Amino acid sequence: MASRPERISRITLLIAATTASASLWWFGSGLNPHWWATWLAPLPVLLLASRVRKRWAALAAFTAYAIGGLNEWTYLHDVLALPSVLCAIVVAEPGLFLALCVLLFRRLVLQGRPVAASLAVPALWVSIAYLGALSSPHGTFGDIGYTQMDALPLIQVVAVTGIWGLTFLIAWFAATFELAWSRGFAWSAMRAPVLTFVAILTLVIVAGTLRLVLAPTDRPSVRAATLNRPADLFAPGEMTRITEGRVTAADHADLAAKVAKLQDWFLDGSRREARAGTRLIVFPEGNLLVFKTDEGAFLERASRLARDEHVYLAMGMGTIHLGEKLPFENKLVLIDPAGQTLVSYRKSHPANDWEAGIMRAGDGRVPVVGTPDGRMAGVICFDADFPEFTRQAAQGSADLLIVPVNDWRDIKDLHFRMHAFRAIETGIPVVRAAASGISSAFDPWGRVLGVTDFFAPGDRTLTVQVPMGHVPTIYATTGDLFAWLCVVGVAAGIGAAMFAPRVIAGT
Asked: Which residues pair with 334 in a beta bridge?
């Protein structure tokens, strides 16, 4: 039995490690994460793993990440309008991830298997995160890999493994550092796990750097522009009310007049940009509203403009079916310079319960169509948070991915970063037109070609030269194979750990 000073020392260590991990997780997660804090956050509680009883090690990990995750509460509760119970589950989820990682890590360390222990933490983290994303209506939203967007050489790894390889590296670092620390940085004891990690990380960074340096610069390009709605046309809440189909006979005429002005705004803006030399014009998600009874007439006007100005129109449209249970068609309509409608795609993944309750969902297939300027594909906003879904564009050999988006102020920065990863994974340039967010374009290596923020003063129009053509990637071919390998490896590792004897005395 431990003496009183020893118990006090361990309690102090427990509190210090939990506090440190919670603080690092607070700054390394959420809507505006700091990349360095994400790498360090698991480390303090992993240092506890073999120094305290397993229940205390697991509790420290769970508590630290649950507290750190509270920085997402406002977004989950106020923006997504999730019930408090569901918010608590989402906030606590990473804590459960790390608690399980700590327990497996502890067992393998006590069995004298340091390399297996260092690999078990990232493999288990990826496995739980991936299986959770498969079953979650929010897809990969919030994965720790998205915190690393600014490290361009590093994030090129997602062209091979998807976002999961990046998540693996972050968790692997903490486990490897703990092993080195616990062995007093004695080279003979820590050589195998440290050399393995350093070799792989170096390979990833060098390969990513070469991928960027050797990227061609002579690709054909298309001048693209994104438009945005006028900020003062509708009163607060009016666009939402129209989208929900809550238009009464008394206010129909007034709202219909505003909708007509909105349509004129987008068509006039398209004509202006076309005459300035733009070839592709993209409207944000659901930004252009059309009553179903007027849709045919509007599409005829849009087709005529595209034909007269020799321009592609990729229109994020909200078609409203008044008086019906599901009144909202959230669509992307692509019209070519000949005035032909090439795509009329309905969003497949609603962003939250509100949208799911009013939206007519699509068929789950990403449209890819051939044009004289290359093959074009399109998804809508939250669709692009599901890497396997977006991968359909690469499988269709698309040369450009068009993504109309409707964000909120709170998530605009994080969501903008996430879609850069879709460009790298698929090897396809992305044009992202965002209402209430950041309109942007990325090349196939995830480099930002241009941005404009809806909330910044001045003109919200983005104009950018977009290189056309896809770059073959391993992820486009293999999909989430890396994540599945982690799942299989963890299952095998847990089975082995359950029956292997300890060779190091535990506490």
From this structure: 314, 343
Residue 334, Ramachandran bin (φ over 0: left; ψ between -120 and 50: alpha; else beta): beta
C-alpha distances (whole Å) from 2 to each of 5, 15, 383, 442 are 8, 18, 55, 58
Terminal-to-terminal C-alpha distance of the chain: 10
Phi and psi torsions of 60, nearest 5°: -60, -45
State the pairing for strand pair 400-406/430-435. parallel
Instruction: Name the residue range of residue 10's domain.
Output: 4-214+481-499
Using CA atoms, how far apart are residues 80 and 352, in angstroms rounded to an integer?
7
- 332 in the same domain as 303: yes
Distance, in Å, from the CA atom of 316 to the CA atom of 302, rounded to the nearest integer, reads: 13
Same domain, 176 and 255: no
Q: Are strands 312-320 and 328-335 parallel, antiparallel or unpaired?
A: antiparallel
Instruction: Please write the tens of the pLDDT for every residue from 422-480.
Output: 999 999 999 999 999 999 999 999 999 999 999 998 889 999 999 999 999 999 999 99
Give the pLDDT confidence of 305-333 residue by residue, as tens digits.
999 999 999 999 999 999 999 999 999 99
Torsion of CA 357, 360, 362, 364, to 10 degrees: 20
Is there a single domain that holds both residue 205 and residue 229? no
pTM, rounded to two decimals: 0.90
- Run of H or E residues at 131: helix 114-135
Upper half-sphere CA count for residue 394 (Cβ side, 13 Å): 26
Give me the phi and psi of 91, to 5 degrees please.
Answer: -65, -40
